[in-house]
């Protein structure tokens, strides 16, 4: 059998991809956690036994199974067991609570619900009972078990909808995003071929496995035959011992993760925070150019950033051999087969990694244009070399006295200020201006207090147009973030500061 990652990426289903990898390199490790190691061969065998156990419970091809589980070996085993059966999976981030979970269970029509019991002080089983969920079972340490000889043939097609992911709800209900095995394999293939890992690498999954990045990353492990450290509760410096012990070479997750590693590095300049680390990689949130330069300069590792979303798990990715300018200022290039079209400044997408739409047909009709391109809501443009530069969100454009202002442009400039650890720029309702520009800043420890006058003077000196200067400054202890890739929740800032007068 051909051991080429390109050959493996032609697999029709995720189960076929695991089966082919397990036959090629059964004894190589794939999942590392605490003192446990699971090989590709053992993952396949264990997943098949769990599939048989699920089959004995009544799970069949097409059965909708929801799961709300942390980043654990057992979670990955369960997902492959469900893939073996051809069930429809609907993963839920463990931090979601009654409103979001209840909505997802109802909308997906889930017939079974796997939970971790009581996890991090919260009773998930109790919530499931409270919501009237069907087929509730705990899947933290123990998984169903059975004889694989009872199983039907594995699914042969990878183009059926077998995954329902959920966009993060803010002021409205989340949307159920429909994916196929092939769309997830396409997304993971883009990530893998961009990062160009080898069998000698050791990766890490420190974000919720229920995030769309879970299968994205797992596909990369299957294609290139290397392992990843699973981190159930990511916090630094606590997680560093595991990174060092396992010899992690590729880490990251999102912009917030880069910043956390950099903060640890700054505690002991010149002493590598993880001696084996060679690459930070991720996506999910904007990356300030200065953060790229600081990571490369102070940590001595490469940083490659990408662009993805729940609807399209991987759109573009920076490659390790891109120029520093491209790595700092762009989101990388799209892979073969991903079409990017810029329409009135908006990024639109078409390709195999794009989802099949939403559970609600009306939402699907609204999301795709007449040519079948997905409207992302992101603003950007392509360089002559094909690299994508994002300039903001359609909803993140501040309209002040009829003039459009990019929040990201101001944020990128403020990220260079030594008294700014992180920043979010938002538009707030204003009777005179329509919207006013407000900068919400998180300062590093020991920094001198910022004033609005100091901020505007700095931005003016950096060349920012006068009409874009913030009219309000708020300093907070910590910006509000979600629990997946720690993306800043701007809607919470708008709610908090909308009634605050400009100062």
TrEMBL record:
One of its GO terms (molecular function) is medium-chain fatty acid-CoA ligase activity. InterPro entries: AMP-bd_C (IPR025110), AMP-bd_C_sf (IPR045851), AMP-binding_CS (IPR020845), AMP-dep_synth/lig_dom (IPR000873), ANL_N_sf (IPR042099). Residues 18-359 form the AMP-dependent synthetase/ligase domain. It comes from the Bacteria. SUPFAM superfamilies: Acetyl-CoA synthetase-like. It holds the Pfam family AMP-binding_C. Belongs to the ATP-dependent AMP-binding enzyme family. One of its GO terms (biological process) is fatty acid metabolic process. Residues 409-482 form the AMP-binding enzyme C-terminal domain. Keywords: Ligase. This is Cyclohexanecarboxylate-CoA ligase.
């Amino acid at each position: 059998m051909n051991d080429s990652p390109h050959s493996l990426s032609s697999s029709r289903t995720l189960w076929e991809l695991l089966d082919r990898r397990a036959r090629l390199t059964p004894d190589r490790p794939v999942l590392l956690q605490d003192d446990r190691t699971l090989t590709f061969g053992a993952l396949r065998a264990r997943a098949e036994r769990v599939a048989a156990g699920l089959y004995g419970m009544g799970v069949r091809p097409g059965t909708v199974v929801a799961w709300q589980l942390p980043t654990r070996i057992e979670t990955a085993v369960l997902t492959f067991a469900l893939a073996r059966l051809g069930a429809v999976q609907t993963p839920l981030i463990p931090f979601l609570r009654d409103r979001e979970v209840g909505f997802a269970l109802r909308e997906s029509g889930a017939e079974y619900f796997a939970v971790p019991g009581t996890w991090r002080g919260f009773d998930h089983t109790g919530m499931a009972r409270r919501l009237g969920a069907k087929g509730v079972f705990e899947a933290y340490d123990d998984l169903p078990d059975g004889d694989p000889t009872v199983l039907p043939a594995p699914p042969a097609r990878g183009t059926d909808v077998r995954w329902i992911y959920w966009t993060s709800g803010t002021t409205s209900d989340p949307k159920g995003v429909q994916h196929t095995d092939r769309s997830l394999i396409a997304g993971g293939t883009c990530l893998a071929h961009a990062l160009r890992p080898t069998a000698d690498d050791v990766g890490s999954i420190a974000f919720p496995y229920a995030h769309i990045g879970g299968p994205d990353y797992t596909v990369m492990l299957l294609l290139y035959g290397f392992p990843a450290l699973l981190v159930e509760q990511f916090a630094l410096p606590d997680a560093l011992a595991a990174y060092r012990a396992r010899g992690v070479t590729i880490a990251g997750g999102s912009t917030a993760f880069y910043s956390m590693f950099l903060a640890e590095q700054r505690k002991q300049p010149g002493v590598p925070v993880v001696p084996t680390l060679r690459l930070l990689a991720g996506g999910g949130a904007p990356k300030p150019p200065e953060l790229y330069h600081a990571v490369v300069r102070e940590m001595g590792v490469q940083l490659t950033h990408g662009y993805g979303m729940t609807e399209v798990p991987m759109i573009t990715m920076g490659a390790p051999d891109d120029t520093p300018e491209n790595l700092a200022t762009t989101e990388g290039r799209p892979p073969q087969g991903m079409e990017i079209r810029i329409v009135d400044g908006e990024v639109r997408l078409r390709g195999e990694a794009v989802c099949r739409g939403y559970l609600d047909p009306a939402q699907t009709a609204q999301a795709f244009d007449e040519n079948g391109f997905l409207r992302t809501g992101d603003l950007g443009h392509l360089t002559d070399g094909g690299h994508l530069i994002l300039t903001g969100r359609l909803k993140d454009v501040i309209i002040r006295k009829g003039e459009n202002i990019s929040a990201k442009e101001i944020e990128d400039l403020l990220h260079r200020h030594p008294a700014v650890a992180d920043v979010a720029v938002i538009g707030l309702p204003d009777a005179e201006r329509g919207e006013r520009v407000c900068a919400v800043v998180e300062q590093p420890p020991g920094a001198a207090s910022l004033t609005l006058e100091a901020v505007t003077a700095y931005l003016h000196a950096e060349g920012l147009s006068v009409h874009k200067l913030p009219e309000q400054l708020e300093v907070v202890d910590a910006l509000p973030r979600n629990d997946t890739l720690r993306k800043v929740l701007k809607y919470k800032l708008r709610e908090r500061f909308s009634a605050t007068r400009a100062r």
